[in-house]
Amino acid sequence: MRKGMTLTEILISFVVFTMLSIPMAYLTRAALVELPFSYKAIQTNASVLNALRYLKQDVNNSTGFPEAYNDYSADENTLLIETADSIICYTFINDKITRRELAKKDSEIKDKTEWIAKKVKIQWQIFRKDNLYALEIQTHIEHKIRTVTEQKMANSYLYFPKIDRGLIK
Fold first, then answer.
1. What span, in angstroms and rounded, lies between the C-alpha atoms of 137 and 76?
2. Between vectors from CA 106 to CA 104 and to CA 107, what angle results, nearest 5°?
3. Which of 48, 101, 130, 151 has the fewest CB atoms within 10 Å distance of its CB?
4. DSSP string, 44-68
5. CA 160 to CA 158: how far, in whole Å?
6. So what's the pLDDT on residue 115?
7. What does the DSSP 8-state code read for residue 9?
8. How far apart are CA 153 and CA 141, in angstroms?
9. Per-residue model confidence as pLDDT tens digits over 62-80
């Protein structure tokens, strides 16, 4: 009866351990790095979708998209939506989406809502034809892996204001 292990048994155990550790390294990386990132990306996307739900309601109630209103002007970071009794200003800066509802009479802020949108890129374009409007919004989350930037959860939305058919000729 022998005690201990032979050199061949030790070498075979090292080979088996190496073969098992490679897949385990991928699983460990997924559990420690990629799952938390995916969770954060899903939370960010849920926040953006919530903001877009408000924006959709505002576009549905809109009467137009003004170029400027008092101290606010529409640009790549600011979107202005005119409703019957207020101007709604969306700003997309510093990893935040901010919605301000401004009273038309005195420009006082009636309501202010903010959503955290880290690493989110939002672009919009307004289409105008006669008195008809449409708003296209494109969103994505930027994820940088070493030197490559990927666009995660890229979406495009197209909103049309509700139209009073009696006003269209």
1. 12
2. 65
3. 130
4. HHHHHHHHHHHHHHHHHTEEE--SE
5. 7
6. 92
7. H
8. 6
9. 888 888 888 888 888 899 9
